[in-house]
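Hello Y.,

Per our agreement to keep a running log of every chain we model this quarter, I'm adding this entry. I've kept the format consistent with earlier entries: sequence first, then predicted structure.
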Amino acid sequence: MLSFVQSKDDNTIAFEFTGKPVKEDADKLENAIKEKFGDDGKFNVLIIAKDVDMPTMTGMWERIKVQTKHMGQIQKAALVSEKEWVEIAESMHKLVPGVKTEHFPPSQLDDAWKWIQS
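Predicted structure for the entry above:
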């Protein structure tokens, strides 16, 4: 389930994700991006991942479609998660070329915000 969290930066969309990604999550994210940044406005993403299950193929495909559609708009992506997600955070830059990515453990959420705002 995707739920938005209060952003500390006007150029950043922040959300928390739990469970498995589903099409409704991708739609919700897509609508928020279009509403705030349009089809060409630059923005950052801060993702807080908690208790995330391996995605279904449909959920994974929907997430990839959103990322691909807005790939040229994303400048930075911060992933705040437990250690087992470090590998995913490290591979994000390979999936989304040109985007600066960084992983932060949950105890360093403030550092994630500082990095995203720098």
